[in-house]
Every structure is written in C-alpha cells, then in structure tokens.
Design a protein that fits this description.
The protein has helices spanning 3-18, 22-35, 40-52, 56-69, 74-86, 90-103, 108-120, 124-137, 142-154, 158-171, 176-188, 192-205, 210-222, 226-239, 244-256, 260-267, 309-315, 319-324, 338-341, and strands spanning 300-304, 328-332. By secondary structure, it is mainly alpha-helical. Helix 4 runs antiparallel to helix 5 and helix 11 (176-188) runs parallel beside helix 13.
Length: 350
C-alpha cells in the first residue's frame, strides 16, 4: 500500500477516534501497524485507546514502543506519564513529565500532571511550584487554581487557599465544585455560615451534587443543627446510596442525637470514609468479623483499639460481656493504656 493510501487509512482511524468510536479506531490503527509496524502515531494513539480502557500495561507497552520510534514527542512522554500515574508509579511518571517539559517547556498539561504526581508523592512544596508554573503558562487554567487551593488547604495555608478558589470562581463563576471546595476551606476557618452559603449555591447550580449536600451537612453539624444536617446527608445518600462519606457523617449525627441503633449501623461506613480516622488504618484478617450472632464459647476473639484513648477507656467495660459468653479475649490496646487496663479484672490474663 502506498503512502497516500496508508495516510488515508490512518486518517480514517483518527476520525473514528475523534468521534469516540474507539473499537473502529483501534481496528483501523491495527491495520496501519500491520502495514507499517513502526507507525508512530498509530502506535501512540492505540496506546491511548488502551489507556482509556484502563488496560494500563498494554498502554504502557504501546506508548513506550512509539517513543522508541520517535523519542522527541512531548505529547507521548506526557501520556506515558499519565499511564504510570494511573498505576501509582509516580517516579516513572515524573521522569516522563520532565522529559516532556524538556522537549517543550510550554506544554501546560505536562506541568499540571507533574504537579498532581508530586502531590500524590507527598512532595507538596514541589507540587505547589509546578501548579504555579501551569498558571503562569495558562492564566485561565481553572483546574490548576482549584488543585492549588486544595493543596494549600491541606497544608494549613487557608487564606491563600481561599484566594486561589476566588480566582478560579472569577474565571468559572458557575462551577458547583469550586463553590463546594471553597466552602470546605471556609468551614476550616470557622466561617460556617459563609461555608453554608457556598454549599447552597453549589447545590443550586448542580442539585444532584453529592459532595455539595454532604459538605453542607458537615457545616450544619458543626452548628449543632442536627436535623438539618440529617436531611443533607440523607439527600446525598438518595443521590448516591454508596457514598461512604455521607453515610459516615450521618452516623455521627445519629449517634449524637441518641439514635444508637441506626447510628452504629451507619458507623460501619467509617472503614470506607476518607475523613474517618479508621480509613487509613483498616486491617484485614483471615478470620471473620464477629457480628454477635455466632457462639463465642471456647473461642478466641481479638478486640483491638481503632480510635482514640478516650474511646478505649469508654468501651473497655464491654469486654466483660465477651468473657461471660465463654470467649478467650485478646485485647490489643494503645501502649499508654496497657498498665491501666491490666488492673481491670475483666481484662486480666487476656
């Protein structure tokens, strides 16, 4: 097949790709490669289709091979960085983002994605700089303002965080996400009423915005408006029944209001809620979780502290009930409490 026909075939594949007809595009790129095995664009774009399909290892292989054909493509390096980021190999991702920037410094996406990879690698100061460069190169780049605002908030620099969300909202004045994120920072500043205004505006823009409803509930909860908070969390759960954050926050409202049965049921969502202290410390065991139904007679049960010292002190008294059920109790507790708890009869010898 001549170059003209090969180019025409590739153009057909590219047209399919741009129309979102990925299977047709993939089939056409493969035909191109069957004719010219080192066709850079077909190999690169085929890799991007696999990336969209979350076939990350295949995507990595294809884009790496494409770079073997033409190593000076800033776009391919950036895309390969995105593949590495997707599999949490941030060091390799940064290598390719940096290479993309070296080839073309003004490649905004490379700077922005580099910032995200640095942030996820807990290299916050470097991430701040990379976001700033993105904004210098593209002053109306809202995602960079938003991510920078969130990062500054996480670092405790709340006033600067607000200023970046303000700039983003000036550029994009009807973004529910921006108003909600600004509300989170305002709430951290103790400005609950202003935070509520931002959440309510976010919801007015996007009524099915789960995070907006859930964040509104948190601010209402802080103001002890438990009934209003309950309704906000319920609204979030109606939109997305699997939103762990809303379930966990609802549990706190229910428990504080004295509804222990429903509150404790909802509290099980803490294991999947990023704002819960249990989220990062969840432990997996080969043995099943005891839910109260099966007999504990002549069995061993592990009770371990998952939250603060006060919680351990508050609930240690229930170990006695397990002992009375015939269980051998292994009680794992925070080291500062070991000596104290060894004096409690129900825990002696266990």
């Amino acid at each position: 097949m001549g170059d003209v026909n090969l180019n025409q075939l590739f153009s057909e594949g590219l047209n399919f790709h741009q129309l979102g007809l990925l299977e047709q595009a993939k089939s056409t790129y493969l035909k191109v490669l069957s004719i010219q095995s080192k066709h850079f664009d077909a190999m690169h774009l085929l890799g991007m289709i696999e990336f969209q399909a979350k076939n990350y290892l295949l995507a990595k292989d294809l884009i790496t091979r494409a770079l073997g054909v033409f190593k000076e493509s800033e776009l391919a390096h950036c895309n390969l960085g995105n593949v590495y980021s997707a599999i949490s190999d941030y060091e390799s991702a940064l290598t390719h983002y940096n290479q993309s920037i070296l080839i073309k410094f003004y490649h905004v996406e490379a700077h922005f994605n580099k910032a995200i990879a640095l942030q996820k690698s807990n290299r916050s100061r470097e991430a701040l700089f990379a976001y700033e460069v993105s904004i210098i190169l593209k002053p109306d780049f809202v995602p960079a303002y938003s991510n920078l605002g969130t990062l500054l908030s996480d670092l405790g620099n709340l006033s600067h965080s607000i200023s970046y969300f303000n700039k983003a909202i000036t550029i994009l004045p009807f973004s529910a996400e921006l108003y909600s994120n600004r509300g989170v920072v305002l709430n951290k500043l103790g400005l609950s009423y202003q935070a509520i205004q931002n959440y309510e505006f976010a919801i007015s823009i996007k009524p099915d915005y789960v995070e907006g409803h859930s964040n509104l509930g948190v601010s209402l909860q802080d103001l002890r408006r438990d009934q209003d908070a309950f309704l906000s969390f319920q609204n979030a759960i109606l939109i997305d029944p699997n939103d762990a954050e809303s379930h966990f926050n609802l549990s706190l409202t229910l428990l504080r209001s004295g509804d222990l049965q429903n509150g404790l049921n909802e509290f099980e969502w803490r294991w999947n809620s990023p704002s819960s202290s249990c989220f990062k410390t969840k432990r997996e065991f080969a043995k099943p979780l005891w839910l109260g139904q099966s007999s504990l007679s002549d069995k061993t049960i592990l009770i371990y502290a998952e939250q603060g010292l006060g919680d351990s002190i508050q609930f240690v008294r229930y170990i006695e009930f397990l002992v009375k059920l015939g269980a051998k109790v292994i009680f794992e507790v925070q080291s500062p409490l070991v000596e104290l708890f060894m004096r409690i009869p129900a825990t002696l010898g266990h």
